Amino acid sequence: MMTPSRIGAHLSTSAGLAAMVRQAVAIGANCVQIFTSSPQQWRGKRYEVREVEAFQQALAETGIGPVVSHDSYLINLASADEVILEKSRQAMREEIARCGQLRLPLLVMHWGAYKGGSLEEGLNRLAKSLNALIPLAEDAGVRIVLETTAGQGTYLGGDFAQYPALFDRIPQHDKLGACLDTCHVFVAGYDLRAREGYERLWQEFDRQVGLSRLKVIHLNDTTRELASHSDRHANLGEGILGEDAFRLLMRDPRLIDVPKILETPGGIEQYARELALLQEFAASAA
Asked: Tell me, what CATH number does 183's domain have?
């Protein structure tokens, strides 16, 4: 019999960290993803000791975990704009510090875009950024996790082959993890709707990235076609991926221990329905 999967959702912390943990329990989640600060502002949030203590107590009481952080949408560690690049590096330093303060083990980040330069230049800037950030993350007890992207325009991360190309530029690349987003990989050209394509995707992921690096999965359906490179999330089973892709994911013993996070539209009530659906998929496999 398969052990229970780690499933959760990206939740708001607007009512406080401890309240967010209680909300996770209420909707049937056992792990969660958050922004530690506003994803639309450069200025970072500061946490008081009492809020951090209440958060840790709530986690201990509920067993929720892991709590995963997602970086700001503004951060671009591959930017050709020197001002944006430095602001991004500083924002990531602050994000890592907040993750350390909150004892969050995983920090999911987007690769960034190389607009105004070349792919190689973008990879070089990203690698230089990560080479400086990895030691800070190590000291804070945080693992940086690179999320697969839709590969639109000059955005990096839409091709699994870019992972080893980046790792070749980073001596401590073994400290980096990977996050697979189901919407992103589908619109990037990896079809996981049926068993054959699903297995082909994981074979390619293991060859280029390594299954051992997989630390988080984002569960999202999509309104966009295969290889469209257009990032539009949809509710599970209501998009082009359909329910079968998520059944395969929930029944895959290789992925049992990997936190699976919903980023679908519709809010808390919709999250609760989708978490129940995921539990149903997992239970039917058992």
From this structure: 3.20.20.150
Two tokens, residue 27: 């909707």
Q: Pick from 210, 257, 249: which is nearest to 66 by CA?
A: 257
Query: Is the pLDDT assigned to residue 1 strictly greater than 90?
Result: no
59-63 contacts: CB < 8 A, separation 24 or more? 59/21, 62/21, 62/22, 62/24, 62/25, 63/30
The encoded tokens of residue 230 equal: 């257009």
Nearest by Cα to 94 from 146, 56, 140 = 140
| Paired strand residues for 147 | 179
Instruction: Tell me the two tokens of residue 73.
Output: 């949408």
% of residues, the chain, pLDDT over 90: 97
State the residue range of the domain holding 80.
Answer: 7-25+34-264
Phi first, then psi: give them for residue 263, nearest 5 degrees: -130, 30
Q: Name the percent of the chain lying above pLDDT 70.
A: 98
Strand partners, 231: none
